[in-house]
Amino acid sequence: MRNRERILEVAKEAFTRHGADASLDEIAKQAGVGAGTLYRHFPARDALIEAVYRSEVEKLAAAARRFAAAMPPIEALRGWMLLFVDNIAAKHIIAPALNRIAASPSRLYEGSRGLIQAAIDDLVKRAKKSGDVRRDLDASDLLRAVIGVSYVGTGPEFRQGARRLVDILIAGSRPIE
Predict the structure, then answer these.
(1) What is the pTM (predicted TM-score) of this model?
(2) Judgement on whether residues 35 and 51 belong to the same structural domain of the protein
């Protein structure tokens, strides 16, 4: 299992830097495994690309649960939204790799949509219960807004601008007094 996780981490970096044509042999080498081990876990390039994407979505969903357990509701929501924006920005970088998947990319995205929606639904529900956000806040609306924030760009000022926009979304989600 540890080999698989290491391969996924190295592959994510490789696909981000070099796109879908990143060398699988180089990925195996950087992960400290043989090519046979890589192909045993991921028999085709598309299987590795899909596994990288799914792994990132699962990490986002797990982060929502961790944040909820460790932070006040509004901070958990804000922290997760920032992490989500970073993840979307990284997905834009590896999008050409994702688009190469032979199976329907929409099937891949649909499978992840439920995990992401459930994560933000739980965070918003918790923030509503604490009174940190408006009762009429719709988690789906907030998710669409966060996706919009991620399209600000990926330049050097991206992180600072995205952080500012997430803070504006949080401020606008507060109860009207």
Answers:
(1) 0.81
(2) no
Q: Would you state the structure tokens that stand for residue 79, as one six-digit string?
A: 């922290």
Residues 79 and 150 in one domain: yes
Q: How many CB atoms lie within 10 A of CB 175?
A: 12
Structure confidence by residue, pLDDT tens digits, 22-56: 899 999 999 999 999 999 999 988 889 888 888 88
**pLDDT by residue (tens digit) across 49-100?**
888 888 888 999 999 999 999 999 999 999 999 998 887 766 655 565 555 5
pLDDT (tens digit, 9 = 90+) per residue, 94-136? 565 555 554 555 666 667 788 889 999 999 999 999 999 999 9
Which CATH number covers residue 5? 1.10.10.60
The whole-angstrom separation of Cα 25 and Cα 39 is 10
- The count of structural domains within the chain is 2
Residue 30: domain span: 1-43
* CATH number of the domain enclosing 76: 1.10.357.10
